[in-house]
Design brief:
homodimer; about 280 residues; alpha/beta; five-stranded parallel beta sheet; three-stranded mixed beta sheet; about 55% helix
Chain lengths: ~280, ~280
């Protein structure tokens, strides 16, 4: 199979590594010439170019995966669609964006054989130098089914071939679900860090920094992630994220009120509910 | 040195293991006879009893460490003080509670040579079966200095002997700092889990459970911890925790308002501040 990867960062580079290791011919496009050189050097791709027009000179792709930042997915697809139309007219196109409704609608308007994907994988690193093999192994990948079952099947097969478990879901349902389990944690966690950083008394703040342990480390991890990614996720999933934040504030206030009023049995019951409920999300 | 450990759970059991491995004579008290048997069987203690009166029959202790749940520290000290007074009148007493002001004041009223400690260590497990060697190695331990420098020194030496780095701090400052970096994360994290669990549409909730990945796992970890511990921390540090929650809500609302108003540059700046600020807490 010939695969085109547009955007050779952590996700695109890691996917390229896995696909090429499985014997596929992989070409890549990155706007950064250094990234293209690195991708070739680490043997993630067979060929790479910083010029989207080079698609005309590469092997016709069976499948093209858009791995750019969220806000670039549709503009990049718009830019490459004419070249693809000319040289890979039968190509199936997918993406890896963390928001699906707007991407799928916009993507299918630009390329009818477009089906959205969202692999639930990543590290705290970014860029081609962070690319690793088996990033998707045993991870879930959401795929929004296409009206043409053959398109859906091709995209599913792609992700399953690199070890992911595919979960088919409606784009709107996906966006509502990830608002709570993926985008809300960023806001919750960043707010925690900022609360610590804004402790008014510098001596208490310094002591807090010194005493912070694994609990703070884990709870603050996603809030300390890539700020641009965080902004793009919020921008792309604004309505559902706001609904999730508002639901969160009601729950936070419920715990706060129990503490304020000294209703300790109620607090412990809520913490027990949280403990019991967590298993369904993390197991 | 002869050391008495009152409460043979994860913390008490692990401390006993380390101290005994370093050649000290360690006796333990647990209200549960099975725990005493296990503590002897795993060679965490030289002797153990479920009866606090047995202190009279054990070797006089140089130091006694109260490792019970937070709400039992002062009642247990009150109960054993007469026995200690009779058989180990020179003993120094410390504790491992996560709140210090009330414990230190109450502890010193019951036993003048009492100095509070708070080792920043733990696992998700509890009980004597969870006890492990080197639990405190390279971890911070807060020690509230005693008016008698010799008492402070003895407590510091105890923790340093098991590999901890001691941080001397005022009890009130300790409680304010841990409210933000240790107790607030529990509330923040439990609220996140409950928000996920309360997604009204069962299909979206199920999808969220399926798609939840490492970000949700890490952010929800401390919220899924022991509900009784969480309740005791909140009860013991209520005032400072409420102040931390209120500061947190203001920050959360600031991020929420930026998202609501579409002020994306402001949001990204806040996320960048969070990323930059995190290093001082976790490194």
């Amino acid at each position: 199979m010939n695969v085109g990867i547009i955007g050779l960062g952590l996700i695109g580079g890691s996917l390229a590594l896995d696909l090429r290791a499985r014997g596929h011919y992989v070409w890549g496009i990155s706007r950064n010439p250094d990234t293209c050189e690195t991708a070739i050097a680490i043997e993630a791709v067979d060929a790479a170019s910083h010029d989207a027009m080079a698609i005309a000179t590469l092997r016709p792709a069976d499948i093209v995966v858009l791995c750019t930042p969220l806000d670039a997915i549709l503009p990049v697809l718009a830019a490459i669609a004419p070249h693809l139309q000319q040289h890979s007219p039968a190509a199936i196109v997918t993406d890896v964006g963390s928001v699906k409704a707007a991407i799928v609608a916009g993507g299918q308007a630009l390329w009818p054989r477009f089906a959205g994907s969202h692999p639930m994988a990543g590290t705290e690193q970014s860029g081609i130098h962070a690319a690793i093999s088996d990033l998707f192994r045993d991870r879930l990948c959401a795929v929004v089914p296409h009206a043409d079952a053959a398109v859906t099947a091709a995209v599913k097969t792609l992700w399953e071939s690199v070890g992911a478990t595919v979960c088919e879901c409606d784009a709107e349902a996906h966006d509502r679900a990830v608002a709570t389990i993926s985008h809300l944690p960023v806001v919750v966690s960043a707010s925690l860090i900022l609360t610590g950083d804004r402790i008014p008394d510098p001596q208490i703040r310094q002591l807090a920094q010194g005493l912070a342990s694994s609990g703070f480390r884990d709870t603050s991890r996603v809030g300390g992630g890539n700020p641009e990614l965080g902004r793009l996720m919020a921008e792309g999933n604004r309505t559902h994220l706001l609904a999730a934040i508002d639901a969160y504030r009601l729950t936070l206030d419920e715990l706060r009120d129990a503490i304020y009023a000294g209703r300790w049995t109620e607090l412990q019951t809520l913490l027990q509910l949280a403990r019991d409920a967590r298993a369904a999300f993390v197991e």
